[in-house]
Every structure is written in structure tokens, then in C-alpha cells.
Amino acid sequence: MLRLRTNLPYAPVEIQTYTRSVIAQPYARKEKAILHMDGDAFFVGVEVAKNPKLRGLPVVTGEERGIATAMSYEAKALGVTRGMPVFQIKREFPQVRILPGDYKSYVQYSGKMFDIVRRYTDDVEEYSIDECFADITGWDKPLKLSYFDIAKKIQKEIQKELDISVSIGVAPTKVLAKVASKLKKPHGLSEITSESRLDFLREVPIEKVWGIGPHTTVKLHKKGIKTAADFAAKPHAWVHDSFTKPYEMIWRELNTESVMPIDPSLKTVYASIQKTRSFHPATSDKRFLLSQISKHIENSCAKARHYALIPRKISLYLKTKQFTYHRHTIPLTHSTNAPEILIALAEKYFSEIFDSKMLYRATGVTLHELLPESAGQGDLFGETIRARKFQALHHHLDTLEQKQGKRMVHLASTQAALNHKAGGTDSDDLDRNLLFL
Ligand SMILES: [Mg+2]
């Protein structure tokens, strides 16, 4: 039995079935072996695993959002596309089964998939709910398996134990591994080596390379670069002079130089984010308490944005001088990590927990049932558009603040809390991780 590294932001878990020998060590190697695993139509895959009667049928998830969030390959073959409105699917493809999303199951299956990858290395970076990178460099010798066969074994175990189909790519860098996992979907296995790299990259349009957005695609097209191979073949000096650092890194990775490390501490799926603060003396100052809540919402939203997550519920609490808790939970009709919207809700429901005759010693805010931001995209109702505008603005501010290394902007509603100089303790906890419930 082996414990996972303890610097991860969740409790260490014990893995019962462990295929690596505890004393085995990876062999030192110059070139890296990076694996990228990606679930095939993952949400639908989980639905089929839960209810095998759905296998082979055209199935779509997203009923609760009014749009297709994932489609089975059978539904795709009919012509259903991501984001297609449910009413249109019903009208044009009445044979399609439309299911509501079951995010709790998706998160649980996600955790189990990543645990299977962790049987082969601790260096696993959870990139999204159904994707991870893993550094398997040097594990071929002790496991007596080629890198390709390690990928094959992972794919087989996920299929056998979870009934989930995944595609896996193996390559010397993250960018190449991501290209590789897409080459043969679904249930694909591909390896890109330094030698075979250009044959593959010639077939990959530049806009399909991880990290190349629409804006850069236009710029690259103007310079006559149409494929990943065209870009990789450019001299370093030219790339260095024409593009910013991230694109230079992509160029290096396309040329098999690993410059994007695997970060095992990155986690994308949290059950909840909580911010609390206790203070003294206890107070019944409504304005102050609300400003504390506002600050917690701002901070927890910043954290949620960092991990590209949105909550489905928010709860507020006040703790009295006598240590009793008054809590109110608000389900969100439109998931968002934009603080303006959540603060407005908190102000609306504050009277549910506040009594002006009581003295309070602590406030807290929890964002619950966090989902990847991508799960909340697609529906185009007014509220969502408004929330998305705020989200985009905050992502922009977050980038600026990261460069400056400090918080630059606060909402006015938070100001009273920041001005409060009295003693107190902030605390910032993650609840138990849903992955390991
Ligand atoms: Mg996927």
C-alpha cells in the first residue's frame, strides 16, 4: 500500500490495488514520456456505464440546460452537435434519448479514472473532468512495458473496471501528447515519437494545436502556416521575434523539447470552496457583516475562477457569540463565479440569517457543487449572458493581478471589511474532495 504525496490539496488516499513495486524507481531518461488521457464523449459514457441499456443508442446529455452538452457517437452520426437546443433535437431527431446531466456521477467516475492512471505514476495532472496528463518517464524498465503498452494497460483497466472508453496519446511533450490522444477517437491509442512526429504534424491543422486560439490562427495563416508541421519547421529566432512566450513554448514542445511540466498539485474538481473569518469584538453591525460576506464571495470566486469552476449552490452563515450557526443555502438557477451576481443574492437573503439583537463573531461563505466552467456554457438566456460578461471581465482582471502579484480591484461592497482593522482570523478551507467521497 502506498500513500499519495501529501502536498496535494486533499487528504492522502490509500490505494489498495497497486501495480508498481514500492521500491521501484523510474529510470533517468533524457527524453520524456508524457501521456494524455481523454474520455470519449465522457458525460454520455458515464450515463451508459450507469445504464448499459443505453449502449449503441443515440444519447444526449444536457436536458436540464436545454442544450446538448455531450452526445454519443450514434447521436453525432445523426447530426446532433454540441450546443444544439433540446427542442430542435426533439423535432429533428425524435429517436434520440435526452438525459439530464448527473454531475455528481461524472465527478466520481473522473476521480476513479485518475486513480487508475495513478497506479503507474504519481505525476498526474488533472487537466479537466475527463482529461489528465501523466509523466511516465522511466517507468518502462521497472514495469517491463513499453510506454505504448503502459497506455494500453491504462485504457484497458478503465474500460474493464469502469466501463468507460478513453483515448490516450503518448509523446515526449504535453502538446504532442494532446495531439496524439486526438488522432484516433474514440478508444484510440497513439504514440508520437521524435522520429515520427513530422508525419503526424503535417496532418494537424494549426488551429487544432492545444493553446492556439482563433486570433493566433489568423496571424499564423497570414504567415503561410497552415499545419502544426509548418509551425514546428520555422526557425527558433523567427518564432521568438514574432510571438510571445506561450507560443514559443508550444513551438518548443512541438519540437519534442518538454518545457511545460506536469503539475500534480493542480486540481480541477473540488466539492466546495469555503472562506470564513472570525473577529472580535462580536458585532451586530449589519453593514460590516455584509461587507465580510462580500469579501468572502470575492475571494472564493477568485479561487473558483483560478480552477475554472462554477458553483451550483452558495451558502452563507453567521456564527453568534454563543457559537450557534445560522446558515442559508441558495441554489443557483445559473451557475456562475462572478461575484457581483452572488453578492446581490447574498444581500437579498441576508435577512434569513440576521437578527439585529444578536452579536456575531464569525461569517462564512461556501460555494458548493463545483462544476467545470465548460459545463455551464451553452445556454443563452439573459442571466447567463450577464454572468458570462462578468466572468470574462474577472478573468481579465485575474490575469492583470497575476502580473502585478497583488489584488488591485475590490468591489465597493467589500470595502468596509477591508477597512476593518480589528483583530480576527481568516480561514480558507477546502471541504472534503468529492473525488474521494
Ligand atoms: Mg473528452
Q: Low-confidence segments, ≥5 residues, pLDDT <50?
A: 1-19, 428-437
CATH superfamily grouping of the domain at 272-436? DNA polymerase, Y-family, little finger domain
Q: Strand arrangement, largest sheet?
A: 7-8-3-9-10
- What's the overall geometry? globular
Assign the structural class, choosing from mainly alpha, mainly beta, alpha/beta, alpha+beta, or little secondary structure. alpha+beta
The CATH topology of the domain at 272-436 corresponds to Dna Ligase, domain 1
CATH architecture of the domain at 272-436: 2-Layer Sandwich
Which hetero ligands occur in this complex?
Answer: magnesium ion
Rg, rounded, reads: 24 Å
What share of the residues lie within helices? 25-40%
- By DSSP (H or I, 4+ residues per run), the number of helices equals 16
Number of strands: 17
How much of the sequence is in beta strands?
15-25%
Cα(first) to Cα(last) distance is 19 Å
* Main beta-sheet annotation: 5 strands, mixed
Q: Could you tell me the mean pLDDT?
A: 83
CATH class of the domain at 272-436: Alpha Beta
Written account of the structure:
The chain is an alpha+beta fold and 437 residues long. It has 16 helices and 17 strands. Among the domains are: 127 residues, Alpha-Beta Plaits (2-Layer Sandwich), CATH 3.30.70; 165 residues, Dna Ligase, domain 1, CATH 3.30.1490. The strands form five sheets. It has a five-stranded mixed beta sheet. A hairpin with an 8-residue loop joins strand 4 and strand 5. Helix 4 packs antiparallel against helix 6 and helix 13 runs antiparallel to helix 14. Bound molecules: magnesium ion. The site of magnesium ion (MG) has 4 residues, from strand 3.
